[in-house]
Write a structure and sequence with these properties.
It is globular and about 40 Å long. It is built from no helices and 11 strands. The model has no long low-confidence stretch (mean pLDDT 96). It has 128 residues and is mainly beta. The protein has strands at residues 3-7, 10-13, 18-25, 33-39, 46-51, 58-60, 68-73, 78-83, 92-99, 117-118, 122-127. The N and C termini lie far apart (40 Å).
C-alpha cells in the first residue's frame, strides 16, 4: 500500500526555520510531481510549493517565495520543504501530495484537485 508520511513539524519562534520531510513508502516518488499544501484552522487548504518529477522546476505561493524551498532526493524517496524566516501566519497543518501523472515534463500543479495521494500532515506552529 502506498503511503506518504510527513515529519519535521513543530513549534518555532517567528524568524526561525524548520525542514519538513515527505517520505513515500510502497512506491517510488521519482516519476511524479509532488506538492506541499497547508491548512490553517478555519481556512481552506492552500498550495505552498510544488516540484516537478525531475526536480528541474519548482513553483511557490507568493506568500512563501524567497523563504521556502522545495527539493527532492529520489534516492531517499523523500521530498523536503525548507522553511526559513517563519511567520505566525505560516501556522498550519502541512500536507504533501503526489500527482499521479508520471514524467509529465516541467508541469507543476498548484491545484489540490490534481493531486491524487495525500499524507496525514504535520503541524507547524509559529509563535510571535
Amino acid at each position: 500500500q502506498v503511503q506518504l508520511a510527513e515529519s519535521g513539524g513543530g513549534l518555532v519562534q517567528a524568524g526561525g526555520s524548520l525542514r519538513l520531510s515527505c517520505l513515500a513508502s510502497g512506491r517510488t516518488l521519482s516519476p511524479y510531481g509532488v506538492g506541499w499544501f497547508r491548512q490553517a484552522t478555519g481556512k481552506e487548504r492552500e498550495f505552498v510549493a510544488g516540484i516537478n518529477w525531475s526536480g528541474g522546476r519548482a513553483n511557490y505561493a507568493d506568500s512563501v517565495k524567497g523563504r521556502f524551498t522545495i527539493s527532492r532526493d529520489d534516492a531517499k524517496n523523500t521530498v523536503y520543504l525548507q522553511m526559513n524566516n517563519l511567520r505566525p501566519e505560516d501556522t498550519a497543518e502541512y500536507h504533501c501530495a503526489v500527482r499521479n501523472r508520471p514524467y509529465d515534463g516541467l508541469y507543476v500543479s498548484t491545484s489540490q484537485t490534481e493531486y491524487d495521494l495525500w499524507g496525514q500532515g504535520t503541524q507547524v506552529t509559529v509563535s510571535s
